[in-house]
Amino acid sequence: MNKTLAFDYFVYQLVDWYKEAYGGGIDNDLSTLKVLKLLFFTTAIGAKKDDNSSLLDSTFNNFYALPYGHVEGDIYDDIKQKKTAYTINNYSTTGIYTETTELADEIKTKISESIAKLKSENPDLIKMSSFDLVELSHSWYSWRYYFNIAKSKGLYREAIPKEVIKSENKYFHI
Question: For 145-169, how does the pLDDT look when each residue is reduced to its tens digit (9 = 90+)?
Fold first, then answer.
């Protein structure tokens, strides 16, 4: 499974959600920080303790607690190394999604269904600022606990086991 291709499809879905929320247009505020927070919430919304079929189990499975919340480590590296189909910077996301047969329909369906669940849970999440999304992720146990471990080691990041995210209370509203 190519995680970068899955992320490209995720961003394509995010851009559509953004256009839907704001009535079209090409400008957006989908910064690196905002996209990474929305990726976490999209991944977490379908993750359940006794179920191994979520995006957290199959695709986006490498989360860390960093100062600004949960970050999928492999995706963060891909963004910084410009390996994605999109240009994502501190202000916005630009680019065009190109359909590929290399990404399994099952993964596309999981991503689309997870975004639909997230939109249903909080349709205004896409309109929140990056730092409001950071604040929201900071309310999660997984971030608080593992970031405190990182700080106790004198570090700024600590891996978060997916089982912790799957079993914790999930918050999608400030």
Answer: 999 999 999 999 999 999 999 999 9
Domain boundaries, the chain: 3-167
What are 53-88's pLDDT values in tens digits?
A: 999 999 999 999 999 999 999 999 999 999 999 999
Contact 117, 127 (CB under 8 A): no
**3-class DSSP state of 135:** helix
Of 6, 47, 35, residue with least CA distance to 128 = 35
Neighbours of 100 (CB within 10 A): 12
- Do residues 56 and 162 touch, judged by C-beta distance below 8 A? yes
How far is residue 42's CA from residue 38's CA, in Å, rounded to a whole number?
Answer: 6
What is the number of alpha carbons within 13 Å of residue 114 lying toward its C-beta? 29
pLDDT tens figures, 82-119:
999 999 999 999 998 888 889 999 999 999 999 999 99
